[in-house]
Task: inverse folding
């Protein structure tokens, strides 16, 4: 499954909730304000790094750039553009948007 | 066998509710989708996670708000053959609720059970 | 593949409509098909003809109208959500005795069944919300 998260992890528990239900081997795509979770050295960085052990995490490049976070992305998170977003949706049977 | 929309085998639809009722319209309008969707004879499940569990709380009395109390409609879901209601145990506990506080019969599940349920779905609608 | 898209928020206040639009464009650029874009909750406000955003800002409603025209997209606004929020086409306005209608080109008003149908007919349904 592909999960999308569009809320900041500091403002909402959306990412935390998503990770609670994301099965091993699934993919999580951070979009919109959700991309803040991709940044290094934040209060949620450890949680995100732990999650990387069981799920793949991607971040939408244009949302990172808009927010000035493009040079702060932690290792292990893959950046995608909208074409990559589409590819992720195609590659997974279902998409769950955590809105 | 095809239905009026030209579909074949019924798809598994999951509606995910994570928001409390009345503070926003998402709970009400998501229930409207479930009720309309019931006519399409798909395989429907409804999940209540986070503040979504509050949608099922007993004793909702909205007279003071002059807003429609739509919680009785959850009781009608069974008549529409929507009877797979899953509630996240952790969300209930965090809110000091138990199964007895809920309006309708539900299946209270763990996160890993819910993850399995979600994984088997074809279409997931979140509001 | 055939895609269904659900947009749950209105233009500007949330990023959802922008993200959905960029996603829709990328879907088409990759050669896939969009079965339907369904607008629900405040998402119905993406279909108002009366929007006048600042000149130097993107015109979200026009973006959707033009994308629909270019690719013959089916943009559907939920009738129940639209009635609550004051989005009307000419027929609805007449039916309810309203003195105006405000739906933008390329959009049509219809029932929630259209969303369910999109879920049934599409290979992938993607939700964009607030």
Result:
């Amino acid at each position: 499954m592909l999960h999308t998260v569009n809320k900041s992890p500091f403002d909402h528990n959306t990412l935390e909730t998503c990770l609670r239900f994301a099965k091993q081997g699934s993919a999580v795509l951070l979009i919109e304000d959700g991309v803040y979770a991709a940044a290094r050295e934040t209060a949620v960085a450890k949680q995100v790094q732990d999650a990387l052990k069981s799920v793949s995490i991607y971040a939408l490049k244009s949302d990172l750039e808009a927010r000035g976070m493009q040079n702060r992305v932690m290792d292990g998170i893959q950046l995608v553009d909208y074409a990559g977003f589409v590819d992720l949706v195609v590659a997974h049977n279902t998409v769950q948007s955590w809105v | 066998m095809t239905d009026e929309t030209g579909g074949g085998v019924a798809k598994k639809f999951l509606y995910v509710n994570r928001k409390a009722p009345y503070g926003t319209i998402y709970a009400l309008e998501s229930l409207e989708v479930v009720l309309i969707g019931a006519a399409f004879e798909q395989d429907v499940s409804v999940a209540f996670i986070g503040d979504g569990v509050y949608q099922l709380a007993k004793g909702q009395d909205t007279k003071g708000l002059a807003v429609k109390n739509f919680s009785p409609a959850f009781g009608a879901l069974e008549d529409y053959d929507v009877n797979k209601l899953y509630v996240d145990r952790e969300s209930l506990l965090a809110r000091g609720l138990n199964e007895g506080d809920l309006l309708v019969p539900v299946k209270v599940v763990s996160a890993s059970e819910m993850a399995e349920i979600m994984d088997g779905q074809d279409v997931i609608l979140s509001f | 593949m055939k895609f269904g898209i659900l947009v749950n928020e209105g233009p500007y206040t949330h990023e959802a409509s922008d993200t959905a639009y960029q996603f829709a464009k990328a879907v088409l650029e990759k050669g896939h098909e969009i079965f339907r874009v369904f607008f629900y909750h405040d998402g119905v406000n993406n279909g108002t003809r009366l929007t006048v955003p600042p000149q130097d800002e993107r015109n979200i409603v026009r973006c959707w109208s033009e994308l629909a025209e270019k690719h013959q997209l089916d943009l559907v606004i939920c009738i129940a959500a639209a009635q609550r929020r004051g989005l009307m086409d000419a027929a609805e306005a007449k039916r309810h005795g309203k003195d105006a209608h405000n739906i933008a080109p390329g959009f049509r008003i219809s029932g929630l069944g259209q969303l369910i149908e999109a879920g049934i007919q599409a290979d992938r349904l993607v939700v964009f919300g607030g």
Notes: Residues 2 and 8 of chain B are 5 Å apart (CA to CA). Helices of chain B lie at 26-37, 72-76, 89-94, 111-119. Chain B has four helices and five strands.
